Structure formats: structure tokens, C-alpha cells
């Protein structure tokens, strides 16, 4: 007993754990009393996927032919190629052990170069003695089935040996999945030809009927499994009754001898005629075929029978395949079909099903086939049957990202390899990955898949982790590609419109709304000419983009802007990839480019914002504190003052584009837009002031003064528009031991430097820091101390200056100093006792003068958003007059916000709810129109356009459909502001 245990323990170092191992080794002459013999064979056994299984296979061969075993054993010792191939096959498949037991001499198939792929047909024809121009077998019936089965199984074993030999001997070639799948497909085709030769022998009639066998599915695509149904369609001519008998006999012979032959993909499925004429096929596919049937035809390929008839069949159906995507709801139908397939998988198996489950092979195949059918209408390079070949073509053509294509192909090959190994075990059709608890099966599958024995028991865990990684990757990429919104949009563009002649293109572009089709064609040519990947991706995107731009107010301007953006971002690697892979980005970008002249210029200089177009929340929601912190951090990283301010301007550009996109796309409201723009301006001022102050302090030997920036006007009220200046006042306080004169000079240099750096011309919208609201206006000092401000307002301050202070709010610099300044001016802007009659008359006089003198020449007072009747100034002056008169008794009126002021005035009974509503609606509408007009024109404007594309664009930006007359929008604006003006007349002018 001890000796036996010792021998078994010793045998375990060769991977043999079966208690019968010693007995089998002794019987085979591989083990003696002193231990192992012929260790080359034992070492090979240790590297096989299952050493015990391989040993049992050798022992069964020995039992079947003792004399032959002695020859085989000697060959195994001397021939490393034979040794590796045979032991790898036996350690992977009990079915091949059965075959070799029944046919002990067949091991010789593995000792040489094997049968070449091109000789498969000849080998199987020889098995049934088939000859003649239309090959006809001399052997028929059960004899033919037996002969064909033996020959087919032997050739299949050769393929398996080629596939597996490297597992045992790493010096042998390691064929990739593509090579093995092609071998298996070629072998299946040869088997179909041989079975047809037997069928002709059994039925006769080969001289009176023509029959072509069309391979479908994996066989048609050249990517067959070891064990799989072979899908076929039959085409017959002349005597179709004879052809039908031959087709039926062929299916029977091939099914009994080799694999199941399935003709269920024929027209009308199992209820349809087994054989149809060419005209019958043509009529069916033209009139009755469903979407999935064209998807199936994607892999159709003649493999047996009448080659001329088979080619004629392809000539008939192929054009239909590549126009199938023109069918209504084509993409949704294919997507729904994939969901139905997955729904039929039991819930407990959906994560283990290699073929149909989530992240399985069908996910890859459906995604690839859908992309082929949509884009292959115009790109013949995509018309391939093989999934991996088609995926490579999609990647090369730019329809799929190169990384995505490579990863998807890698994961597909991994799952197909697992499928092959699982089917080899017993040569049964299976697609089920072992459960986590089936550790022995997992360990065997890991070793059979190339995860070496050195991993030991960890091999199962490595395989499990790889399996989950690949299925998760497939599912992620499947959902990205298969449900890509752009794909459905491309499919909706009819095929004939993807291949237009010049005249047709003119008509098509004109119909889409392009006023200059010739110019549009030039842009299209510039974007798509050449053979670069960039041009290919543009070719895939443009058909959809042209339609999308055609639905904007200015298709011509939008296409020109798209060309400029594309050329400017030609070296940005992710730009076209985002447009292709994120359909929402392309759609939203088209809306922006066809509406606004400001957005394209900003996109060129801040392209990273394009990524945000895919996520409305990221585009619209960003906390002001987060923006300010990012801006300050960016500025601090730069020691050189010019670079620091440039960084601030760069982040301002990014934020300005983000806000503009969210605004035009309707993801945010007008008050949020104004607040966001104001917070960005405040952050720029804060960061720039800090940078300039540091630089000035370094030059002056220290900080000579504390500085605060007080926002005025719209900046103070957080109501800035896209082109608004920043109205500010600078206040300073001398540092301890510094006299006022030195402090003012220091602060003055800081203020002037900030204004100069921010106001220097660039391609961005201007950043003008306006200090005209300071005491004494343009004649006064730019910076004053707190006491200087106090003294000025006490002695010289006028009522309009008190009105201007209503919006004063600290926006940058020293917070404590800013707070003290506000405390100092509160009695001035909220005067005790309100206003006397003379002060009220003075405010009304100034307002009347503004109305008559400051309105630009030629401006329409009915549609001027700022100074027009019922416009922004009307509403704001009305609220400010109420504040000056009543804020001393109504604390809620002490606000810098116009909208909050209206609410407070209503609550205090100073305005009726109806009057407040009229003023609020007018102010909000005028603000929105002012912002929209600036975005549309690309520069600050206060005038609502009166006609043409600009008016249509402003109306569209406000949510008016292009199908409506923009004049209706103008009427709405006039009516709203007219109501507001009526309120102003009786509230402001009393």
C-alpha cells in the first residue's frame, strides 16, 4: 500500500491524480517498479489540458490494438510533433478518444503535415468514391454515411490537433481563431459537397436538374465551430422536383455523417419549399422578406452544387441586402430582435451563455451586422461575411473607433475559443460556460484555452476573471455601438441620397434648406476628399449632419462653421470619434452651429466643451464656487503675470461656451445663465486681481494696500449678459504704516494693470472692466480710499449716484473691506425718509433724457431690448425708484437683483401682482432676446433683428419652431413689452 501511495504521489508531479493512473501507466509500459519510464511522454501528459483524460485515452488505444500500441509508443517517444498533437487532442476530447479506439490506426493522421485545406474536398470525395463533372458517389446508403463519417471525423481531428498541439509543445505553431474557423468552414463545405455527391447517386437526375447549395450563418461567413448546425438555402432550376429530392437526401447524409444541416433560413422558413427557383427567391425577397432575413443573407455564399447558379443567386439577393437599411424602422427592428433573443435565455444562465447571453457572441455579431448593413450601402469594403473581418473593416473605415474595434475583436476571439474548447470535449453543441462552483471544469477549460499548468488551481480563477472582463467589455461596446443614435439617423438617410450625382445633390441640398447648394458641395468635398481615416469618418457623419443642419435657421452658415471647426480640430484625436460615437453630440452641435456665430469661434478655442454635449447635466450644472476655485488654481500655477491672466481668460472662454451651449439647447433658464455669467466674471476678476497684486507687491517690496472690487450695474446684480462689460469700482485701504498717497498709487497700478490685461484684444469676446460709475466719472480717480468715498458721497453725491449704488456688491478682493464699503453706502442708497419730490422729478428727468438721447440712431424703440419701450431699462429704473423711495422702511427691497426687487415690491403692496407680472415677463423676455441675439450675431447687440435668418435664429433660440413665422415671435415681444411700458407709465412716471 505504501509503495502504491508513493508511486501515485510521484505520478502527481506529472499532473496525474486519478487513483488508476499507476495501473494505466504500468499497462502502457510507461511506469516500472523503479518509477517513471519514457519521461518524454509523461512530461507531455503533464502539459495536456487533462493529463488523466489523456492517459485514459492512450490506454484505450492500447487496449484496442496491443501490437499497434507498441509502434505508437515508440513513435511518441521519438516524434515530438506527434506526441504533442495526439496528447493534446486526447486531453481535450473524449470524442476523439472514442474515434481512435474505434479506428486505432487513425493516429497516423497526426504524425505528418496533415491534410491541406484545399484537399479536404478531394479526401471526402475519395471516401465515397465520387467522380464526374457533377461529382456522383459510387458508394451510397449506410455505407456512404459510414465512410463519410469516418473520413470527416479524421479530418476534424487533424484540425483539432493543429489547434491544440501548442498547448503541449510550445514550439509548435499556435494558430489563431480566424485560421481554425476557416479550416472548420472549409471542412464543412467539403462535407456538403461529398454529401451532395452521395445524394445524386441515390436520387439520380443530375443531368435533368440544377441545384446550388448556399451556406448561411457561420459557415457562410467562414467562421464555423467544431460542432454547429450548418445553415443552408437551396436554389434549383429545371426539374425542381428532382432537385428537391437531391437536396433532401444531401441533408440526410450530411446530418447522419457529419453535422446537422438546417434549411430553416429559407424563404417562409420550415413552412416554405425546400428548393426554390432563382425567380422564386427573387420574388419572395422583393415582396415578403422580413428585416432579419436580409440580415441573414449578409453571410450567404455558394459552397456546393452548380457554381454558376449559386453566383446568379448572389447577384439577385446581394443588391437587396445592401438596401435593407432603407426599410422603415430598420434599426429599431434589428435592436428589438436582439432583445428578443436575449429574453429567451433563462435568467440563471444569461451570464454564462457564450452565444446568446449578455456580453456574448450574439452581442458582437448583431452590432457588427447592423453597422455593416447601414454603412455598407455605400462602402463595399464592409461587405464581408466574417465577423472579425467586418469588424476590422469597420475600424479601418472609421465607422468604429480603432480601439473599440480591436478590443471587440479580441473579446470575440476569446469567447469563440472557449466555445471551441467546450465543444471539443464530447463533440456536442454547447455554449455554456462552467458555473463558478464547477472548479474542475473551469481548471480544465483554462488549461485547454492556454492558461498553463504552472498556474495550478489559480488557472480557474484567472479564466473566470478573463471571462468576466471580456463579457463586460463586449456588453459595454455592444450598447455603445448597437444603440448608437447616429446609426439610426444614418439609416434614415435613403441610400440613393448617399450616392448623389452633382445635379441630384444640388436638388437635395436645396430641399434641405441650403440657399447655396454649390457652396455646400464645396464644403462637403473639402471634408471628405482623400482616403484618410478622417475623411472616412466625415463621410459617415455628414449625411446625418446635413439633415440636422437643414433643420436649423442657417444651414449654410452651420455647414461652413462645421468645416471651420473640423479643420481647426483636425489634430484633436477625439473630436470626430465623439461625433461618431455620441449621436447626441452631433445633433446638438448641428443645432449650435446652425444657430450661433459665437459658438463656433469658441469651440475652436475650447473644444473640450464638446464632450459635455453628451451629458446635459454636466453641461448645465456647475457650481459657481467650483468654477471660481478652478480658475484661481489655474492662475496660481503661473508665475509670469501675462500667462496667469491668459489662464484666467482661457477658463472664462471654456465657461462662456459651456453656458452658451446649455442656453441654446434649452438646458438652463435665463436667470441661471445671467448668474453663471456673472459668477464667471467675478472669478476672473478675483483671480486676475490676486495675480496682479502678487506681482505688484513683489515689485514694491510688499502689499502697500488692501483692495476690494465692488461690482456695479448688471455685475453687481448677477444679471450679466454674454457681451456685458464689468462695471466696477475699486476701493483700497492703506497697509499699516503706509500713507494714503502711496497706497493709492499702489492700488491704482494694480487696478490699471488688471483693466489692461483683461481688456487686451483677443479672439475671445471682450472683457472690458468699466469704471465710469466711480465718483466724478471719467474725470475721477480710478481708486479711492474708504474715507475718500465717504467724503465724496456726503458732500458731492447726486441722486443718480445713489441710484447706481443700489446694485453695488463686493465681487473680488478683500472681503472685509468690501463688506465695510457696503455698510458705508447703505444709508446713501437707502436714504432715511426716502426721496423728496424734487429727487423723484430728477430721476424721472434723467430717465427721459436717457430714453431720447442714448437710444442708438436708427434703432427701433419698440424692439430695442435695453433702452426700448418696456425694455430692460424701463423695468430696472422702475424697481430702483421704488427701492430709493421705500427701502428704508421695507428691508426686503434692499437687494441688487431686479427680480427679487419686484417680488419685494409686490409683497410690500407697492405693485399689484398683475403689474409685477407684466414687468417680470418683459424683463425676462428682453434679457433672453438680448442674450440670444448676441449668440446669433456673435457680438453684443441690444436690438431684436427685424427679419431674415437672424430673426429666425433668435426665435429658434427662444424655442419657436422653424415652421412658425418668426414674425409671430416679434409680435409676442412687442405685446409683452407694450404691457410693461403701460405699467412703467403709471408706476414710474405716476
Automatic annotation (TrEMBL):
Annotated ranges, domain PII-uridylyltransferase/Glutamine-synthetase adenylyltransferase: 336-482, 862-987
SUPFAM superfamilies in alphabetical order: Nucleotidyltransferase (SSF81301), Nucleotidyltransferase substrate binding subunit/domain (SSF81593)
Key word Chaperone present: no
Domain Glutamate-ammonia ligase adenylyltransferase repeated: 85-314, 587-822
Keywords: ATP-binding, Ligase, Magnesium, Multifunctional enzyme, Nucleotide-binding, Nucleotidyltransferase, Transferase
One record GO biological process: regulation of glutamine family amino acid metabolic process
GO MF terms held by the record: [glutamate-ammonia-ligase] adenylyltransferase activity; [glutamine synthetase]-adenylyl-L-tyrosine phosphorylase activity; ATP binding; ligase activity; magnesium ion binding
EC number of this enzyme: 2.7.7.89, 2.7.7.42
Names of required cofactors: Mg(2+)
Catalytic activity: [glutamine synthetase]-L-tyrosine + ATP = [glutamine synthetase]-O(4)-(5'-adenylyl)-L-tyrosine + diphosphate; [glutamine synthetase]-O(4)-(5'-adenylyl)-L-tyrosine + phosphate = [glutamine synthetase]-L-tyrosine + ADP
GO CC aspect terms: cytosol
Region of interest called Adenylyl transferase, as start-end residue ranges on this chain: 494-990
Region (Adenylyl removase): 1-486
Function noted in UniProt: Involved in the regulation of glutamine synthetase GlnA, a key enzyme in the process to assimilate ammonia. When cellular nitrogen levels are high, the C-terminal adenylyl transferase (AT) inactivates GlnA by covalent transfer of an adenylyl group from ATP to specific tyrosine residue of GlnA, thus reducing its activity. Conversely, when nitrogen levels are low, the N-terminal adenylyl removase (AR) activates GlnA by removing the adenylyl group by phosphorolysis, increasing its activity.
Stated family: Belongs to the GlnE family.
Name of the featured protein: Bifunctional glutamine synthetase adenylyltransferase/adenylyl-removing enzyme
Organism of provenance: Actinokineospora terrae
Amino acid at each position: 500500500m505504501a509503495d502504491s501511495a508513493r508511486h501515485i504521489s510521484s505520478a502527481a508531479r506529472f499532473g496525474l491524480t486519478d487513483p488508476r493512473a499507476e495501473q494505466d501507466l504500468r499497462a502502457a509500459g510507461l511506469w516500472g517498479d523503479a518509477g517513471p519510464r519514457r519521461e518524454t511522454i509523461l512530461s507531455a501528459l503533464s502539459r495536456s489540458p487533462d493529463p488523466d483524460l489523456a492517459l485514459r485515452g492512450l490506454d484505450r488505444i492500447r487496449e484496442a490494438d496491443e501490437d499497434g500500441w507498441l509502434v505508437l509508443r515508440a513513435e511518441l517517444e521519438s516524434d515530438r510533433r506527434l506526441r504533442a498533437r495526439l496528447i493534446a487532442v486526447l486531453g481535450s476530447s473524449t470524442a476523439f478518444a472514442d474515434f481512435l479506439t474505434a479506428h486505432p490506426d487513425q493516429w497516423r493522421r497526426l504524425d505528418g503535415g496533415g491534410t491541406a485545406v484545399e484537399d479536404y474536398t478531394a479526401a471526402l470525395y475519395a471516401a465515397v468514391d465520387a467522380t464526374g463533372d457533377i461529382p456522383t458517389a459510387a458508394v451510397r446508403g449506410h455505407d456512404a454515411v459510414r465512410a463519410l463519417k469516418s473520413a470527416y471525423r479524421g479530418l476534424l481531428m487533424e484540425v483539432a490537433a493543429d489547434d491544440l498541439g501548442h498547448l503541449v509543445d510550445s514550439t509548435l505553431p499556435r494558430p489563431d481563431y480566424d485560421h481554425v474557423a476557416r479550416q472548420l468552414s472549409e471542412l464543412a463545405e467539403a462535407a456538403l459537397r461529398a454529401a451532395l455527391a452521395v445524394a445524386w447517386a441515390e436520387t439520380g437526375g443530375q443531368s435533368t436538374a440544377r441545384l446550388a447549395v448556399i451556406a448561411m450563418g457561420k459557415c457562410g461567413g467562414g467562421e464555423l465551430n467544431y460542432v454547429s448546425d450548418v445553415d443552408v438555402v437551396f436554389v434549383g432550376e429545371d426539374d425542381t422536383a428532382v432537385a428537391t429530392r437531391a437536396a433532401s437526401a444531401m441533408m440526410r447524409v450530411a446530418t447522419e455523417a457529419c453535422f446537422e444541416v438546417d434549411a430553416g433560413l429559407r424563404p417562409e422558413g420550415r413552412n416554405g419549399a425546400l428548393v426554390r427557383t432563382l425567380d422564386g427567391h427573387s420574388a419572395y425577397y422583393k415582396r415578403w422578406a422580413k428585416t432579419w432575413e436580409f440580415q441573414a443573407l449578409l453571410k450567404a455564399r455558394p459552397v456546393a452544387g452548380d457554381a454558376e447558379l449559386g453566383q446568379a443567386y448572389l447577384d439577385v439577393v446581394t443588391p437587396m441586402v445592401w438596401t435593407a437599411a432603407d426599410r422603415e424602422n430598420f434599426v429599431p427592428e434589428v435592436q428589438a430582435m436582439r432583445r428578443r433573443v436575449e429574453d429567451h435565455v433563462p435568467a440563471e444562465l444569461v451570464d454564462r451563455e457564450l452565444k446568446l447571453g449578455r456580453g456574448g457572441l450574439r452581442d458582437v455579431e448583431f452590432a457588427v451586422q447592423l453597422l455593416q448593413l447601414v454603412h455598407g450601402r455605400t462602402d463595399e469594403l464592409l461587405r464581408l461575411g466574417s465577423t472579425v473581418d467586418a469588424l476590422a473593416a469597420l475600424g479601418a473605415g472609421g465607422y468604429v473607433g480603432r480601439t473599440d474595434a480591436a478590443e471587440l475583436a479580441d473579446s470575440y476571439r476569446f469567447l469563440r475559443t472557449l466555445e471551441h474548447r467546450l465543444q471539443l470535449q464530447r463533440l456536442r453543441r454547447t455554449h455554456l460556460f462552467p458555473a463558478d462552483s464547477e472548479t474542475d471544469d473551469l481548471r480544465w477549460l483554462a488549461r485547454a484555452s492556454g492558461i498553463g499548468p504552472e498556474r495550478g488551481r489559480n488557472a480557474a480563477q484567472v479564466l473566470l476573471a478573463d471571462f468576466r472582463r471580456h463579457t463586460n467589455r463586449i456588453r459595454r461596446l455592444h450598447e455603445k455601438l448597437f444603440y448608437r443614435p447616429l446609426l439610426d439617423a444614418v439609416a434614415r438617410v435613403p441610400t440613393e441620397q448617399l450616392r448623389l450625382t452633382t445635379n441630384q445633390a444640388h436638388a437635395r441640398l436645396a430641399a434641405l434648406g441650403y440657399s447655396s447648394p454649390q457652396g455646400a458641395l464645396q464644403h462637403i468635398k473639402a471634408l471628405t476628399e482623400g482616403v484618410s481615416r478622417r475623411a472616412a469618418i466625415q463621410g459617415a457623419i455628414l449625411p446625418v449632419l446635413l439633415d440636422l443642419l437643414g433643420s436649423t435657421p442657417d444651414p449654410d452658415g452651420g455647414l461652413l462653421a462645421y468645416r471651420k471647426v473640423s479643420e481647426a480640430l483636425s489634430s484633436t484625436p477625439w473630436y470626430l470619434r465623439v461625433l461618431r460615437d455620441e449621436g447626441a453630440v452631433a445633433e446638438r452641435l448641428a443645432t449650435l452651429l446652425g444657430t450661433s456665430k459665437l459658438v463656433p469661434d469658441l469651440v475652436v478655442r475650447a473644444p473640450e466643451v464638446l464632450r459635455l454635449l453628451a451629458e446635459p447635466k454636466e453641461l448645465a450644472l456647475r457650481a459657481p464656487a467650483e468654477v471660481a476655485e478652478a480658475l484661481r488654481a489655474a492662475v496660481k500655477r503661473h508665475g509670469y503675470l501675462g500667462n496667469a491672466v491668459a489662464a484666467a481668460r482661457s477658463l472664462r472662454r471654456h465657461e462662456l461656451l459651456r453656458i452658451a451651449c446649455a442656453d441654446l439647447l434649452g438646458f438652463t433658464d435665463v436667470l441661471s445663465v445671467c448668474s453663471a455669467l456673472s459668477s464667471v466674471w467675478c472669478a476672473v476678476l478675483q483671480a486676475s486681481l490676486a495675480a496682479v497684486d502678487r506681482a505688484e507687491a513683489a515689485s514694491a517690496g510688499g502689499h502697500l494696500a488692501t483692495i476690494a472690487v465692488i461690482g456695479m450695474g448688471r455685475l453687481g446684480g448677477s444679471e450679466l449678459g454674454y457681451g456685458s462689460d464689468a462695471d466696477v469700482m475699486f476701493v483700497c485701504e492703506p497697509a499699516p504704516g503706509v500713507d494714503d498717497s502711496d497706497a493709492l498709487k499702489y492700488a491704482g497700478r494694480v487696478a490699471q494693470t488688471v483693466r489692461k490685461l483683461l481688456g487686451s484684444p483677443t479672439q475671445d469676446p471682450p472683457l472690458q472692466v468699466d469704471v465710469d460709475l466711480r465718483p466724478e466719472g471719467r474725470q475721477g480717480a480710478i481708486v479711492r480710499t474708504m474715507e475718500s468715498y465717504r467724503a465724496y458721497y456726503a458732500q458731492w453725491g447726486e441722486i443718480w449716484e445713489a441710484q447706481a449704488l443700489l446694485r453695488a456688491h463686493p465681487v473680488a478682493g478683500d472681503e472685509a473691506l468690501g463688506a465695510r464699503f457696503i455698510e458705508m453706502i447703505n444709508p446713501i442708497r437707502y436714504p432715511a425718509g426716502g426721496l423728496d419730490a424734487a429727487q423723484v422729478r430728477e430721476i424721472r428727468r434723467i430717465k427721459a433724457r436717457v430714453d431720447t438721447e442714448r437710444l442708438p440712431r436708427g434703432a427701433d424703440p419698440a424692439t430695442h431690448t435695453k433702452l426700448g419701450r418696456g425694455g430692460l431699462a424701463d423695468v430696472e429704473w422702475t424697481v430702483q425708484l421704488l427701492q430709493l423711495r421705500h427701502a428704508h422702511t421695507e428691508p426686503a427691497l434692499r437687494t441688487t437683483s431686479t427680480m427679487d426687487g419686484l417680488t419685494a415690491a409686490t409683497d410690500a403692496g407697492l405693485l399689484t401682482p398683475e403689474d409685477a407680472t407684466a414687468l417680470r415677463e418683459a424683463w425676462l423676455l428682453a434679457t433672453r432676446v438680448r442674450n440670444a441675439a448676441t449668440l446669433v450675431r456673435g457680438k453684443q447687440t441690444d436690438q431684436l433683428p427685424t427679419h431674415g435668418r437672424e430673426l429666425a435664429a433668435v426665435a429658434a433660440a427662444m424655442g419657436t419652431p422653424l415652421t412658425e413665422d418668426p414674425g409671430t415671435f416679434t409680435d409676442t415681444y412687442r405685446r409683452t413689452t407694450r404691457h410693461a411700458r403701460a405699467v412703467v407709465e403709471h408706476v414710474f412716471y405716476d
